[in-house]
Structure formats: C-alpha cells, structure tokens
Amino acid sequence: MKLTEPETEQELDESQIHNVLRNDRRREAIRYLRESGGSLTVDDLAEHIATLETDEAPAPRKVRKSVYVSLHQTHLPKLDDLGIVEYDQRSKELTLEDRVREVEVYMEVVPQHDVSWATYYLGLGLLEAVVLLAAQFQLFSIQMLDFQFWAWFFLTFLVVSAGYHVYSGLEKSLF
Question: 131 and 80, same structural domain?
Fold first, then answer.
C-alpha cells in the first residue's frame, strides 16, 4: 500500500537515480530483489543486508533490527515513491516495478573477479587497434595475414560479443 503516489510517470531524472544509488542499502535492495525473482519480504531483505554488513550469518539481532528500521522508515518508502519498488507496508512485501530498469542501467553488477562489459569492449578495441596497426605496417608475424582478414576477424568477434551481451541481459530480465 503506497502512502503517496509515485512522483511522476515520466522517466526518472539523473539526480533522482544518483540519489537512489548513492546509498549501499538501496542498491543492495534492488540487486537482491532482482536476484530473488523480483519479490520478497522486508524481513528477508533486512536479514540479507545485515549479514552482508556484519559478515556473520545470522547477523546479530540488534543489527538486523537496525537495518529493518532504516529500510522500513527511509529506503523502501523512497524506492516506492519513485515507482522502483512496490512496498506494501501492511504485508511487508516488496516487488520490483518496471521502472527499476531506469536505475539498473547505472548498476552493472560485476562479480569480484569478473570484467565489466565496458572493460571488455575497451580491451577488445585496444587489441584490435594494435593488431590492425601491426598488420598495416607489416610488423611481427602478423604480416602473414593481410589487413582485411584482421578487420573482418575483429568485426565478427565484436558482433558475436555484442550478441552474447544482449542475450545474457535478456536472461536476467524479469519483465
């Protein structure tokens, strides 16, 4: 049950998005809701965040209560008001709304030992530039294959990578 109506049906502006994402608990709430299939209870979310913050499972009761109170009084109402999460304060249920996509664009989540897509594409572009320059100026053993081969090779590699990137993003989408 919303206490107020969402601020607007227009897209969120950058300042609203940055305001949401500058808080660790709000970011983790969105991330964990997505990971949990798009809905869960405030108790489950508070337990999860408290465990992350203390590195103890289960987290101490006092910490869980503190996290619960801050989620209930501050973070979840803000996400609800912006239409990112539907927060039913009676049943304590949370559900991701379609508008979460506007925020997730800024939240590329990369596991600790992984590489972000932006870094991957940058690396691919730099490798391509080095190989094409070497082929153009006939440096090293790259001269065995001509410039056009390398250009087509990297173009194909880029298209396959982008296709996989789009496909993997579709798998994660709930909507």
Answer: no
Q: What value does the mean pLDDT take over residues 36-49?
A: 93
Can you give the residue range of the structural domain that contains 45?
14-104
Shared domain for 19 and 100, answered yes or no, is yes
Q: What is the pTM of this model?
A: 0.60
**Cβ-count burial of 85 within 10 angstroms (0-12 exposed, 13-18 middle, 19+ buried)?**
buried
Between CA 136 and CA 54 the distance in angstroms is 56
Q: What are the Cα distances from residue 147, in Å, to 127, 144, 154?
A: 14, 10, 11
- Residues 100, 137, single domain; the answer is no
7-16, 114-123, 126-135: which range is least confident on average? 7-16
